[in-house]
Specification:
- By secondary structure, the chain is an alpha/beta fold.
- The protein has one domain: Glutaconate Coenzyme A-transferase.
- Helix content is 20%, strand content 27%.
- It has six helices and eleven strands.
- The longest helix is centred in the middle third of the chain and has 13 residues.
- The chain is globular, with a radius of gyration of 18 Å.
- The model has no long low-confidence stretch (mean pLDDT 95).
Length: 230
């Protein structure tokens, strides 16, 4: 049996080098792999292409890698609350591919399922559809979108076992399951790591076959991107 457990985030990101493509789970700051992102920021690895719903905030999540200019290209659906992301995009310092959110999720899922491309009506007639093949289905035009894969997929789960089986909690499930399937190597950081057989098989969201490295993180901040109160 493959030994998947590693000691910490620094060990988990071993092998990630300049110029690689990474998928990073999360939505806003919910369910992001905080520890691996921090380790990447410390590593100095640069020229990364990052696929994520958004890029965190200025001083947390992928915002840390933007601040240190480690990201060359962002493939995302939302600029969000990150002023640095917006500034780099508008100035041309950062290459950005903005994708409708549903298309982004499906492109990741397709990559994990071995489906090379699919047709969708989302984006037809906009800049999103420029230069893409168009076909008509049921009287409606659709554009061809290519699947997304990555050298490394980095996800965050609530619980996992040392075989790599994962359970996500609530809305932290978001992009994590589809991205876990689409990485050549998938890294999972979890809040609680248990031995095989301790997780109910009926509750597992990502089977261990998709995960190559796993570790238990400590002291998660779990920041709220934008707090609203009455």
């Amino acid at each position: 049996m493959m030994q998947k457990r590693v000691s910490d985030a620094r060990a988990a990101i071993a092998g990630i080098t300049d110029g690689m493509t990474l998928m990073l789970g999360g939505f806003g700051l919910c369910g992001i792999p905080e520890k691996c992102i921090a380790a990447l920021a410390e590593s100095g690895i640069k020229d990364l292409t990052c696929i994520s719903n958004n890029a965190g905030v200025d001083d947390f999540g992928l915002g840390l890698l933007l601040q240190s200019r480690q990201i060359r290209k962002m493939i995302a659906s939302y600029v969000g609350e990150n002023a640095e992301f917006e500034r780099q995009m508008l100035s041309g310092d950062l290459e950005v591919d903005l994708i409708p959110q549903g298309s982004l999720a499906e492109r990741c899922r397709a990559g994990g399922a071995g489906i090379p491309a699919f047709f969708t009506p989302a984006g037809y007639g906009t800049e999103v559809g420029e230069g893409k093949e168009v076909r008509e289905f049921n009287g409606k035009p659709h554009i061809l979108e290519m699947a997304l894969t990555a050298d490394f997929a980095i996800v965050k789960a609530w619980k996992g076992d040392t075989d790599g089986n994962l359970i996500y909690k609530g809305t932290a499930r978001n992009f994590n399951p589809v991205m876990a399937m689409a990485g050549r190597i998938t890294i999972a950081e979890v809040e609680e790591l248990v031995e095989p057989g301790e997780l109910d098989p009926n509750h597992i969201h990502t089977p261990g076959v998709f995960v190559q490295r796993i570790f238990q993180g400590q002291d998660y901040e779990k920041r709220i991107e934008k707090r609203t109160t009455r």
